Amino acid sequence: MTDTEQHPVTTDTPPAPLAPLKPRIGTIVWGCILLVVAAIAIAASQVDFGDLTPTVIVWSIIGFGGILVVAGIVTAIVRAATRIKDDPPVG
To answer: Could you tell me which residues belong to the region Disordered (predicted)?
Structure first.
């Protein structure tokens, strides 16, 4: 057998490389929200929350909202940096 019989030459072009997979931020955020809800449910079943005041609840909601705002800002910064890196230079 010759080399060409063992390894036939094809004229097909190779497939285009696939774009790298990027995490979906919305999915991650909603997953974190569900984890927090699950953690609260587990804690509520283990601890007596009868002595919680409305002030504690309000501050907890404010803290959770602050975490979501910070996550949104970080996401915006990362997305902007990625967009700048991917743009071709002008000129």
So the answer is: 1-20
Start-end of H helices in the chain: 3-6, 25-46, 54-86
* CA distance linking residue 18 with residue 16, whole number of Å: 6
User: Distances in Å between the alpha carbon of 58 and those of 23, 39, 50, 91?
Assistant: 32, 18, 16, 53
Q: Which two tokens stand for residue 46?
A: 């283990």
Rounded distance, CA 69 to CA 38, Å? 21
The 10s digit of each residue's pLDDT in 36-63 is 888 877 877 787 767 778 887 788 888 8
Q: Which residues contact 68 (CB under 8 A, 6 or more apart)?
A: 29
